[in-house]
Design a protein that fits this description.
The chain has 16 helices and three strands. It has 417 residues and is mostly helical. Among the domains are: 47 residues; 241 residues, Receptor-associated Protein (Up-down Bundle). Helix 4 runs antiparallel to helix 5, helix 8 runs antiparallel to helix 9 and helix 15 packs antiparallel against helix 16. The protein is elongated. The termini are far apart. The relative contact order is 0.07. About 5% of the residues have low confidence.
């Protein structure tokens, strides 16, 4: 049976150390609590391996079985976290829970990660450390919260908090992405249809106009010239423009200054910038609130939030807040100076500091901004629909007018002759 070393506080508040036998870390914590002691640190005692097992382990490492698992989707991670929390809450040992979840997974990075984490935990490694080996699956926030749950014997509650956090973050991201699918698809298909008309249909009218030998109106000449340009290779330029823009944006974002400039510019774009800013506020407040609610110290929580931010403007602001708090200032003051959030957010954080319920206040802010993002996205889609109709109608109207003007002139000449 594994041996666990531990540090704890006894009933009179004195720090004590000891060892205890238990099948798993959770049962070791339960035994320590049963003795009337509060564990602050529980760690499996390293087990000496035989020459055979050490050789087998080295062979496994050399064969690549201990490599870090690849990236997984948010949906799979949410499902795993929710199921893991349920199994842990039911009293199943960690390793048994992991083995059950491994069997349920389809072959892929998630299954590989769960298998390797289970193997490491079986060998005595803490769950959070085993998960930290796979940063593409379990990020820093995930591992820190699991560590807090392990240390305090509240792993099931922390996993439930994690699952709720991941589900809400995924829902926010999915809402923004799904709102952009419709206009992107409409614009893409419209461009392809117009290019097809310019490439195949307009040249047929050009032949008809040349047979009549009449001077063409400027609008028709412009349309025919555009058609010839597209047919002679201009369509490649049209396709390469968005590809080139995406490549340029990626190139700019390779540097920290470039990311900051790009994020700042995007936040000032009408409508879309408002959505981006609100979603960033919702993400950072929910991340920070979840960490503080799990018992992570505020400086460490801000560090994790800073690293997990997808927006360089907010990331820099979090770094400034971290440095200010470390020097003894409050949370609200440097955030107010950064001017990246509404005064209402700063005031609510200030109230949370005064009442000692900062985590709950941050969660409320996140819920409010989630709803505001939803409303802003719906408003953007409602605004884009008439704009797309007007633009597409204008393009089609231009083509129709350009084609019919010379035909009307021909009819008039024929009727007059």
């Amino acid at each position: 049976m594994p041996i666990f070393t531990y540090e704890a506080m006894n009933s009179v508040g004195q720090a004590i150390k000891g060892q205890i036998d238990a099948p798993s870390k959770e049962e070791a914590i339960a035994k320590i609590r049963a003795k009337g002691e509060y564990p602050t640190k529980v760690k499996a005692k390293p087990v000496k391996k035989s020459a055979f097992s050490m050789g087998q382990s080295s062979n496994q490492a050399s064969s690549g079985q201990r490599r870090s698992a690849g990236k997984v989707s948010n949906k799979l991670l949410v499902q795993f976290t929710r199921q893991f929390a349920t199994l842990n809450d039911a009293g199943l040992p960690v390793v048994r829970s992991l083995r059950i979840l491994e069997e349920q997974q389809k072959p892929g990075s998630m299954k590989t990660a769960i298998r390797m984490v289970a193997e490491d935990v079986e060998e005595g490694k803490p769950l959070s450390e085993a998960m930290a080996v796979h940063p593409k699956v379990f990020d820093r926030l995930f591992c820190n919260m699991v560590h807090i749950g392990e240390t305090g014997g509240l792993l099931d509650q922390v996993l439930q908090q994690l699952a709720d956090f991941l589900e809400k973050s995924r829902a926010l991201r999915a809402r923004v992405i799904s709102a952009m699918i419709y206009p992107t698809a409409v614009i893409s298909f419209s461009v392809l249809i117009v290019m097809g008309i310019m490439w195949k249909v307009i040249p047929q009218f050009k032949v008809i106009f040349e047979d009549f030998g009449q001077d063409l109106p400027p609008v028709t000449t412009m349309l025919i010239n555009a058609s010839e340009w597209i047919a002679s290779g201009g369509w490649v330029v049209i396709i390469l423009i968005p590809v080139g823009l995406m490549f340029l944006i990626r190139l700019i974002k390779m540097s920290q200054q470039g990311r900051y400039a790009m994020d700042m510019m995007m936040m000032n774009v009408p409508v879309f910038g408002d959505i981006m800013q609100k979603s960033s506020v919702a993400r950072f407040t929910r991340t920070l609130g979840t960490l503080l609610g799990a018992g992570v110290p505020i400086l460490e929580a801000i560090n994790i939030t800073h690293a997990a931010a997808n927006n360089e403007v907010f990331s820099r602001a979090m770094k400034t807040v971290h440095d200010s708090i470390r020097e003894g200032e409050s949370f609200a003051a440097p955030l107010r100076q950064a001017k990246i959030v509404d005064p209402m957010v700063v005031n609510m954080i200030d109230v949370g500091e005064e009442t000692g319920k900062q985590d709950q206040m941050l969660e409320k802010i996140a819920d409010v901004y989630d709803e505001e993002v939803k409303n802003a996205v719906d408003g953007m889609v409602s605004l884009l629909e008439p704009i797309m109709v007007i633009v597409l109608g204008g393009i089609v109207g231009f083509i129709v007018i350009a084609l019919f003007l010379p035909m009307i002139a021909m009819i008039q000449n024929l009727s007059g002759g």
